[in-house]
Protein 1
Amino acid sequence: MPERLRFDDVEEGDELSARSFFLSKDQVRAYARAGGQWSPRFTDDEGARREGLPGMITPGNMSMGILASFLEAWAGPGTLRRLGTTFRGLVLPDRTIRLCAAVTQKDDASRSVELDVWLEGEEAERLVIGTATVALA
Amino acid sequence: MILDLHLHSELSDDSRAPVEAYLKVLQRKRAERPLDGIVLTEHRQFDPARDYRALEDRYGFLILNAAEVETDYGHVLVYGVNPDILARFDFSDVRLSAQALVTDVARLGGIALPCHPGRATVGLCDHYQRKPPLEGVVAVEALNGGSKKGEEARVEELVQRLGYKAYGGSDSHLVSFVGVCATEFDAPIRSMDDLVAQLRDGRYRPVDFRAR
């Protein structure tokens, strides 16, 4: 069984190693279709433009899923207890995105930590921001 | 004296940041963000009973309270909120008259300053394309920690064209970003009265501590 990160090994102020990767249109289409989100805004540039968007966009729940897997890659599978996000900008595919997080509080009683978490675009603009609670071993 | 003039705590509906957590970040990052204090600007509300003196004593930062309200010219920060201002304006109203706010807050002892003016829809620049400039605006937020590409250039043009003073704030909703943009004052500030006086007549400038 994969190991969970230990509570005692984490300090307030710890910054997770940022993760950057290229988010392709095919990945976004596959996610949207798998989730039954058939709206053109998630699958087709022309259709998205007809809705007034600059091109196809990433579903919000996909952005949340990406952030969730980023956090669990750090802390261990099954550790994420809560993730709340605010969508500040459009996450456009065919670009590199960057995932970042920092530990902001530790709770000794529950052996959990609070984190700030955010997704940046190529200009370092924060497109999705949020907070998360992660339970550690 | 360097203050972050614009940030939100868990009292705002879109933030979960505890005030103490902000102070811990400022303590840890003092070398890269050398701030002396913060001004909390909760959305659409002002609670005169809020008292952060215990945290001020524990962490050694000045903590002041203001508000961010919504007007027909976008969002505006109100400093020096007092009972007369609260009687005159319903801060929960999302269609406040910006002109009335700027004029009457000044008359009643405070100061109202537009924030993130370069931002679409909620910023002054967009509104100035369709409506006449407001009378009596002293300064605008030229640096905002949440700005996207192009917003600051729009504000720079506005400041040059209309002769506004410029200030800065992080607009932080997350603990990690407190103090990334702030305002440096030439004079010391120990109270909200000092801050209002300096914002009206003092010398200050936005400062940028964002990592490049």
Note: The mean pLDDT of chain B is 97.
Protein 2
Amino acid sequence: MNTLSSGSSVGLKLRNFSLLLVAAGLLASIFADVQIYASEPWAHLRIMLQGLFSPSISDPQQLAIDLFYTLSFALIGVSLAAVAGLLLSLLYQHPLVRFCCAFFRAIHELFWALLFMQLFGLSASTAILAIAIPYACTFARVFHDIYQHAPIKLRQLPELADSKFSHFLYVLLPQVWPQMRSYLRYRFECGVRTSAVLGFVGLPTIGFHLETAFKQGDYSYAGALLLAFFLLIASIKYWLKVYLLPVYIGIALWFLPGSEFTNSSDNIWRFFSVDIWPAVIKTADQSIVEKLLAYGQWLSSLLLQQGLPGMGSTLLLSLMALAATAVLCVLLAPLLTLMRGQWLVNSAGQCLLLVMRSTPEYILAFVLLLLLGPSMLPAVIALAIHNSGLISFLLQRDIAAAQTSTTASVSFSDFLYKVMPDLYAKFISLLMYRAEIILRESAILGVLGVTTLGFYIDSAFEDLRFDRALALLFLTALLNVVVDQLSRKLQLCFSDQGIRVRSKD
Amino acid sequence: MLFKLSHCSFSYHSRLVLDDISLGINAGETVAIVGQSGVGKSTLLNLLAAQHSDNIAYCTQDRQLISGLNCYNNIYLGKLAQFGAIKNLLNMLRPNVQALEEISAIAEQLHIADKLQASVGKLSGGQQQRVAVARAFYQRRPIFLGDEPVANLDSVRAQQVLQAILQRHQTQVIALHDRDLALRYFDRIIGLQQGKIVLDAATADVTQQDLQQLYL
């Protein structure tokens, strides 16, 4: 009796949390602009789908080059990040390292690209650094997390605590290498997606021609590009081997475009010493106090005019997207479970999930914006589709693992009484983990025109107002760090409900 | 006196594991700790290990072998802290000549010389146990603490390994459940029951019956 009542209270707490989340999402939608502005979205969608499903390649050579650059940037960027992340993960105990990692990770790859573009132009260095920096910080934390869960601590050799490097090499690494390898593989897939999206800000990856094709209404070409992109992602597991990495990196380095845009060190120095500071503090005869005061005034007016509205819509969008993701997952889960019996339906479901999670939310949002017109609705749908695809995929692996003995199809009541109770805590864990990522993406979708923080940052870069851009970037990163901490706190509250708590930043 | 515990109690998860233990062990003694499983033998060894960690080679029951490393490197781990980071890195790439020689001799004595290059995950329980003992040997410490170090070996092998342990160390404190081995190879036997010492005597004064009492 006792276990029953405590069991149901666990369920209740999670249920209340879920309902609260959906309610918050609905409430947010009252304040946000979620109109459909396009006059005939369905007709447009029909034409688009017709094009997408009849792919044709007008310029196969260009497509090959696009794919090659997309892969090369991802390969070099993620490899650099892995090495740097490995080193950082060894120093992760240090509070300064932890904070820097949390902060740099909070800035989206596209923002890094916009920033480095000012220094290195539309070059390979911009693309590689934009991927490498945030990824390195993510690797640092995840690797550190993985070390914590190494089963053997070798307590009978306490003197090993002093030789950190040897301990890492002989005790930690051999134990956790399989996990690290599978995470590296997953991040490489993310890297390819990021690399594709970098094309949308002008870098020479597949996203560049994808954007053009969509904008020109050449949906057949867009379809071909997307198909090639999906095939590329689906094929990763067949050719990505650790021992082949040096060969791949060598080829990538050899054939990457040389940068025509060369920036002198004077220009780079000017960027940091002059460009990123507002004019109000650059008058010569100011004391430090006056400078600080002027900067404070400038900053507060920027906050009021752009920072706060941007933060508001970023949070609104994130809440709506999180709620929509949750609802979509709950709808998808029973379908995927029930389908497991039928081979054909099951494979179709797998393909759908692959497409959902492989399409970067940025590209989805871009396409939906073309269809539905400029409101928050396309962004919400895009975030929900991508994230629910990913969460469902991960959950479904668990369902499969739990049911290896019974290959027979599962009835709906089986799903309600056997699958769901085990899975729900895991589902909420994943949702909380994605919350931070959804916030990052909400901010970046502003580059497409939704008035989140990314919109103001992108406009500032366009107007060459680097002072504003950097201040707003700083604010975005800070917001992300705060939300990340809150979501960790929430995880802690629910830890006795089986929610996984990630390690501290 | 090498080890000294006076009126020592220890609880784990609010369960009293050791109850008011007083005990002294001199250098040069060969002590067997016997008793049913769960009676507090491992906890007692852990308390002793904490007293002289610099002079002790401690072979724990869970063996603490690293699954991704081969046997050679698992044994090499024993002296890892004494070598510099560079030497350890190079050894990972290609075994250090001197260390390999020393470890081969130990492996020879424990009959695992042909397994040095094998991954520990692929070995049998008994072989893994000897790798753990080999790691303790490689440390070259005067005191050996062992928690069932020969439990998974057949009786001939168990005696060989136990003799090697006794031959290589000045002082030994070993927990084991094999009463015959205890009576045959040790100077002193400590019997535990429900967290208390109920028997502590020179082996000459202990009979099979006395030991059987502990397992009732």
Note: Chain A is about 75% helix and 0% strand.
